[in-house]
Amino acid sequence: MLILKPNCECCDVDLPPESPRARSCSFECTFCAECASARFNDTCPNCGGELLRRPIRPAALLVKFPASTKRFNKAHAACADVQGAL
């Protein structure tokens, strides 16, 4: 089951479970659409996999299967300009 991480690991913008802006790879690395496209050309900087729109879990199932609340950031050279401000 997808973890549904709550933020972009590059710019730390919030990505709630219902966000159409969330992008992830097959390893569930999570980025916002802007970082995925502009910084990484829709390719995961961690594994080289494709960054695609993250599926949205139906709201009724979020009660039983909630999204993660643990924020995750990773140092990427392409994110240095925003991560210095975090």
From TrEMBL:
Kindly give the InterPro entries that the UniProt entry links to this protein: DUF1272
Q: What is the lineage of its organism?
A: Bacteria, Pseudomonadati, Pseudomonadota, Alphaproteobacteria, Rhodobacterales
| A Pfam cross-reference name | DUF1272
Descriptive protein name:
DUF1272 domain-containing protein
Q: Which organism is it from?
A: Gymnodinialimonas phycosphaerae
